[in-house]
Amino acid sequence: MSTQRQLHLVRSHAHAGEIPGTVDLSAAEGDDTAYGQALYPVPAEDPNDPLQWSSKKKNTILVICALYSFFGNAALLGPSVYIGIYAEEFGISPTDASGLFIFGLVGASQATTYGGLMAARIIHAIGSGVCEALPVQLVNDILFLNERGKKLGFYTVCLCWGSTGPLYAGYMLAGGYSWRLYFYVLIAFAGALFILAFLFVEESAYKRVVVASSHGSSNENIEKDVSAAHIEAIPMVPRRRTFLQTLKPWSGIDHEAEFFMTIARSFTYFLIPSVLWVITSFGIYIGLGALTFNYTFPLKIIAPPYNWAPTNSGLIALANIIGYGLAVPFTSSSDRLAAYLTRKNNGLREAEMRLGVMLPAMLVGPAGLIVYGLTAERDLHWVGYFAGTAMVDWSSYFYFTFALAYAVDSQTANTSEMLIAMNLGKQAISFGMGIYLLDWILTTGYAKVIAGAFVAVLLANNLMVPVFMWKGKAIRRFMVGTWLGRLHARTKIAEEVA
């Protein structure tokens, strides 16, 4: 009996529509379902297909990648409490010292000069940058459409909780330890995660070979029969790879993929509206939100009228914990809303159906910047800093998770290249906004910059939610007919045939 359970393979007759992002989830007899709807993508009848892996294996992979994201982000932002120490030790200005945290970690614990520390953290940035794209690719590879929002939500919370790093770094400093200890601790965790990833994170790239066939006998409408075709799995079921085989540190090479086309294709995604929206959402929330709080709070809270001890300047991380903690109950909200709207739409799923849950967050984020900016400008009660930060963080969760899920749902061709474009774009925007951020705020004023200019930029980005809810499908239909849509369709990496 246990063997039968082990060998159970998921079956589904769901199929994609002509427009990317539109999927027919109508369930046929014998289909595995979620929310009463067929599962998509349709897995191959092969236990090595990542979609066929057990929930335990999938969750283990997700936890390891989420922890990697947490520590990668903590390594970037944690040392922000050391800005004053770096300025004094390396003989540079606080503004120059703050620039270090846009880069990385490896070797930083041994740095004796500003240049050495900068170089080491650039190397770390290359490694930690993987946590911005790989977990999203894994979610796309191993999970069905109905659970992507929830699983991406857990990854997002861990990634964003990594910005609590200043809290731990500050208390290490308060304990009388050198700033280098923080890097030593992160190195230990990074080593442990490397071992866990080697043992349990199996290669998730999989090329499904399936055959589409029609089951209609009527010749009245051939196109209708073809569109109703469902996917037949290959009858011979391969054996599951052994544990030792899954440890192989390399995977096969796709000889059909064109090297230069793969590189060039990544940059074309900057022209896709939904992808560009994800890029601006991440870049703006990071550049105008996270960096603003991490740079300005330590400076404000140790000065009159607050006069907090420098070792407590990392406590703003508590607002981060509260903000994203309050977002956790909403992890599955977009999946449930999309499933409900799909039922009302006779089983036809549209990518935009998950966006409705973002409407409250659309206004809460800008309101949080106003609260924070006015508190800093007028030296109001310190609770204002925490309330404003928590509001922005709560709002950013919805954009980091559901805007990203929407883009992945909408653009099914060459997802890995799309994620590369997203990573490059959002890092460039957040870098551009953050490089002179501290100078700009200190010279212009907290209210004008944070509660004024930043609010306008963030609100303009957030108001794209109703635009995509209203015209998202029309945009997708238009893009299919452009040269860009034809390029992506022609060079699409092989996957399911529907």
How much of the residues is beta strand, in percent? Answer: under 5%
Low-confidence stretches: 1-5, 93-107, 210-234, 494-498
Shape: globular
Number of strands: 7
- Strand arrangement, largest sheet? 1-2-7
Question: Helix/strand-derived class?
Answer: mainly alpha
Number of helices: 22
What helical percentage do the residues reach? 55-70%
For the record, give the distance between the C-alpha atoms at the N and C termini, rounded to a whole number: 33 Å
Q: Which H/E pattern describes the elements? A: HEEEEHHHHHHHHEHEHHHHHEHHHHHHH
Q: How large, in whole angstroms, is the Cα Rg?
A: 24 Å
Largest sheet: 3 strands, antiparallel
Q: Quick check: average pLDDT?
A: 81
Description:
With 498 residues, the chain is mainly α. It has helices at residues 2-7, 55-77, 83-90, 94-98, 114-128, 134-142, 148-161, 165-174, 180-200, 222-227, 243-246, 259-268, 273-301, 317-327, 333-344, 359-378, 383-410, 415-434, 437-444, 446-462, 464-480, 483-490; strands at 15-16, 22-24, 33-34, 37-38, 211-213, 230-232, 348-350. The strands form 3 sheets. It has a 3-stranded antiparallel sheet. Strand 3 (33-34) and strand 4 (37-38) form a beta hairpin. Helix 19 (437-444) packs across helix 20. The longest helix has 29 residues, at 273-301. The protein is globular and about 70 Å long. The model is unreliable at 1-5, 93-107, 210-234 and 494-498 (pLDDT under 50).
